[in-house]
Amino acid sequence: MRLQVEARLRLGTFAIDAAFGSQAGVTALFGRSGSGKTSLVNIIAGLLRPDHGRIMLDGDVIADSKRRLFTPAHRRRFGYVFQEARLFPHLSVRGNLGYGRWFAGATGSGEEFGRIVAMLGIGHLLDRMPATLSGGERQRVAIGRALLAAPRLLLMDEPLAALDDARKAEILPYLERLRDETRIPIVYVSHSVAEVARLAERVVVMENGRVKASGKTAAVLSAPSPTYETDRRDAGALIVGVVESHDEGHELTNVRAGECLIRVPHLIAEQGQSLRLYVAGRDVMLATRRPEDISALNVLPGRIVSLSPPRQGSVDVRVDCGGNVIAARITTLSREALDLQPGKQVHAIIKTVALDY
Amino acid sequence: MDLLALTEAEWTAVRLSLRVATVAMLASLPFALLVSMILARGQFWGKSLLNGLVHMPLILPPVVTGFALLLLFGRRGPVGAFLAENFGLVFSFRWTGAALACAVMGFPLMVRSIRLSIEAVDRKLEDAAATLGASPAWIFLTVTLPLILPGILAGMVLSFAKAMGEFGATITFVSNIPGETQTLSAAIYTFTQVPGGDAGAMRLAAISVIISMAALMLSEAMAAAAARRTVAA
User: Fold this and answer.
1) What is the band of B2 on the pLDDT scale with cuts at 50, 70, 90?
2) Of A121, A334, B54, B222, which one's alpha carbon is 20 to 30 angstroms from that of B81?
3) Which residues on chain B are in Cβ contact (under 8 Å) with A100?
4) Interface with B, mutate which of A41, A78, A90, A148 (most B CBs under 10 A)
5) Ranked by mean pLDDT, which of A340-344, B75-79, B195-199 comes out on top?
6) What is the ipTM metric for this complex?
């Protein structure tokens, strides 16, 4: 599966001029609000017509302005999960789920229906009307509705943005299952580093309607000088680990990443499942000696790799902790007080609750 | 003689009125739907002109509308002569003419109601339907139409109620012929013009009050349902 997008579109004073390619798995379109992510996804879906551009999926030309070719949205078979669920208010959950399925010629068997309903945990909602569902339930139904239309590609425009943290935590595992259990490529729009880090294999960073950077998630998000200026506040590093065990009594999940064992809140993911954690630099403390009697559960010994030039009174310190590079944001005052230099042995301290999503 | 019992002639007027109003309502529905869609969604030069034209019967004195119909749809009128020759459809001094007059008078009410409900539809739902594989025609049938159905029903009820009460345009266009064009309102008018007609006028007036009230209440209930259902989830 390979998606190639090139599009130029002028919308009033704002212009989109972007090109990117994506492979199977999740590709995140990442950038602050107003950077043109949603417009770009609408162009891919066929809801917006670009002035110039070309969209190809697996060598199949979906739209090409040079050849005056434009496949209308309803013939593209691109699933779309919107920021608001956009469920049809006059149809029950079952009717909503069946809508796209019917237009797809109901190719999927009843087995497919049952499998997707089970994966999203919406079996008990089938006879309810959308108005009676919670935000998280609506969004799960919307995802199911898009999947049951048997899409060739799934577009998701900030599907979690309208939800509170508890609902986000409720839906994220379903999105991870979706990524791992279906073979449908996903273009996932988000402005949240944490979401992108957890879900996406590749990231396309958008700024002012243009592609600023793109590449593997770990490389883009952990780059020493963040290529994305989106939110310096959110700058940090990505850790890839495997779920090793659960502490059911305390509702914690232990994630093994290299030599480190990191405790993450909530009982998330199955044992053995690979998990990506995004650790924001502002959530990491550094200590030159191992602290004792401290509530933070993750104290990782490591060695300083590099220090960024100071910006607005703070520096980003990159620490290699048993094969994982963690970024810590500290003040220049702390750097001087602790005399932090590349090569120095330190302990990186991460509060477990800071790793909540 | 029982004060509440209607005479045969009075019954004829009631039945005729119901038939005229029903035909007027059903015949104008497709046109109203089309015009509402154009006014709600279209962007074209002359849109306000069309809007004004649709609303004319609401503002003009009904006699003027009736006179205009007489000129256009009368035996010698350009449209009337054409329809009579090609389709055998004659309006002048027939109950069909009464239905036409009622349809024209109720048209702006029906269009207003349907147009408002179309404008209340969240177009994002139609986009969502498109991404699920529905063509524009299917989107209209499966999303737009169900969502505006309460508005359509409310518009039909209003048009029906207007037709039941229509007097000026009808009597100008097709006169007041018992059994052919004498609707409820015309019959009441006739009763008030003859000595001792008060009892008959009263009975018919009571019937018209009941029918109009029922129609209005039904319309209100449907408008409320429309407001509830077009809110996107």
Assistant:
1) low
2) B54
3) 131-133
4) A90
5) A340-344
6) 0.79
CATH 3.40.50.300 domain span(s) along chain A = 2-233
Whether the predicted pLDDT of B227 surpasses 70? no
Contact state of A74 with B147 under an 8 Å Cβ cutoff: no
User: For residue range A197-230, what is the model confidence (pLDDT) as tens digits?
Assistant: 888 888 998 888 888 888 888 778 766 555 455 4
B133/A100 CB distance under 8 A: yes
Domains of chain B with CATH codes: 8-227 (1.10.3720.10)
**Contact: A89, B230; criterion CB under 8 Å:** yes
DSSP states along B71-125: HHHSTTSHHHHHHHHHH----TTSHHHHHHHHHHHHHHHHHHHHHHHHHHS-HHH
Q: What is the mean pLDDT of chain A?
A: 86
Q: Which one of A70, A74, A76, A152 would you mutate to disrupt binding with B, by most B Cβ within 10 Å of its Cβ?
A: A74
How far apart CA A60 and CA A2 sit, in angstroms, is 10
Residue A136 predicted with pLDDT over 80: yes
CA A197, distance to chain mean position in Å, is 6
Q: Residues, chain B, total?
A: 233
Cβ contacts of A133 on chain B, cutoff 8 Å: 233
Chain A neighbors of B143, CB-CB under 8 A: 88
Give the pLDDT score at A166: 73
Q: Does domain A236-355 have CATH number 2.60.120.10?
A: no
* pLDDT at residue number A357: 58
Q: How many CB atoms lie within 10 A of CB A316?
A: 24
Crossing angle of helices B198-229/B95-120, nearest 10°? 30
| DSSP strand pairing (A186-190 vs A153-157) | parallel
Q: Do B231 and A82 touch (CB under 8 A)?
A: no
Per-residue pLDDT band at A106 (split at 50, 70, 90): low
Q: Which CATH superfamily is domain A2-233 in?
A: P-loop containing nucleotide triphosphate hydrolases (3.40.50.300)
* Residue ranges of chain A that CATH labels 2.40.50.100: 236-355
Residue ranges of the alpha helices (H) in chain A? 37-45, 73-76, 93-103, 110-120, 135-148, 165-181, 193-199, 217-221, 332-338
What is the residue-wise DSSP string for B5-52?
A: PPPHHHHHHHHHHHHHHHHHHHHHHHHHHHHHHHHHH---TTHHHHHH
- Test B130 with A74 for CB contact under 8 angstroms: yes
The Cα–Cα gap between B112 and B155 comes to 8
CA of A131 to nearest chain B CA: how many angstroms apart?
6
Encode pLDDT of B191-225 as tens digits. 999 898 888 899 899 988 888 888 888 878 877 77
* B230·A86 Cβ contact <8 A: no
- pLDDT score, position A129: 92
Helix segments in A182-316, DSSP class H: 193-199, 217-221
More confident residue, A188 or A166: A188
